[in-house]
Amino acid sequence: MRTDWKKPLLRALAGETLSTPPWWLMRQAGRYLPEYREVRGKVRDFIELCLTPALAAEATMQPVRRFGMDAAILFSDILMLPYALGQRVSFREGEGPVLEPIEDHKALLRLDRDRAISLLEPVLETIRRVKEVVGPCTAVMGFAGAPWTVATYMVEGGSSRDFQRVKSWAYHDPATFAALMELLVESTVEYLAAQIEAGAEVVQLFDTWAGVLPETAFQRWVIEPTRRIVVELKRRFPGFPVIGFPRSAAFFYERYIKETAVDGIGLDSAVPAGYATAVLQPLATVQGNLDPILLIVGGAALANAVMQLRQQLSRGPYVFNLGHGVLPGTPPENIAMLARLLAEPPPLPPPRAGEG
Ligand code: CP3
Q1: Is residue 242 part of a domain?
Q2: Three-class HEC string of the chain
Q3: Predicted confidence (pLDDT) per residue in 281-304, tens digit
């Protein structure tokens, strides 16, 4: 397939090997940017920011204007879906998200899926506005949380240390937990389809807490729901690229790619480059996986790690990214340095044994 007229990120996701890798960063918008803090200061709370298209589009574009990433990821949050389903959600400074926990089947019945997409209309409007202003080489990216990760927040009522409530429900009463997951699969499909119709050119499913489940549960609550979302999106939008990010999936990464049929696979920083190139890259475009702490450290440590990643992963389809999101303490100058490093011609490949 000829893909050379496409945006670099879309070419890489279609399986092309590019000499300078396309790049973007998870959580590339946010508090580490002074211009974001200014926009954030114009509204009372974070949800209001996500539901104000002019401001959300501005927050989406800020990192892209400053650093020239190859993707403009929609400024929103994975918890906007539970919010739109009618769960009470708030974001408290320094505390993270707080939700009124869904603890049983009864609470589930109070959620209203029919209203959800219309409540998210401002998010779709943000995508339309971003699409109007992005440059010709920048891909507009939509996203959602994967059902398992969204369920952890919905059931735990926020971030969790051990996931006791959500796992207990899933183990003890899988039939009613399946009803919650079913609701999330179906509303995530509708939400992502609406994002695609609004102009998203690629979508990513964030499964931040995929790595806390053992094998049988991983299959049922991570792979199966993700597979259903990917199948349905590709049925409605043939060939549309989907990236999966099952963070900390370790031994399950290979099976996740094979069974969900994602086009791109987000790797956390613990995935070894040799394993990624030998086992995962033949199956999907790999994306990742610089340790976000290196973006705080900067200097030679950053330059060496970026060179090494490019040397190892750029010989096949590759999208440069972090292994997790940009941290709030990241100096913007270090991202500017990263942008320069990634624009340089490819580093020489390491000599093979017996050569040189
Ligand atoms: O990547 C981007 O720049 C796009 C926007 C985006 C946000 N959250 C904005 C945000 C995206 C893609 C997310 C995804 C998200 N949200 C995930 C998956 C990725 C990951 O980091 O694991 C998760 C687990 C969430 C849930 C969430 N939202 C948490 C735990 C928090 C609190 C922690 C924090 O960083 O504050 C949020 C809030 C949030 N989401 C902020 C931003 C910019 C900060 C809120 C503020 O500015 O007041």
Answers
A1: yes
A2: CCCCCCCHHHHHHCCCCCCCCCECCCCCCCCCCHHHHHHHCCCCCHHHHHCCHHHHHHHHHHHHHHHCCCEEECCCCCCHHHHHCCCCEEEECCCEEEECCCCCHHHHHCCCHHHHHHHCHHHHHHHHHHHHHCCCCCEEEEEEECHHHHHHHHHHCECCCCCHHHHHHHHHCHHHHHHHHHHHHHHHHHHHHHHHHHCCCEEEEEECCHHHCCHHHHHHHHHHHHHHHHHHHHHHCCCCCEEEEECCCHHHHHHHHHHHCCCEEECCCCCCHHHHHHHHCCCCEEEEEECHHHHHHCHHHHHHHHHHHHHHHCCCCEEEEECCCCCCCCCHHHHHHHHHHHHCCCCCCCCCCCCC
A3: 999 999 999 999 999 999 999 999
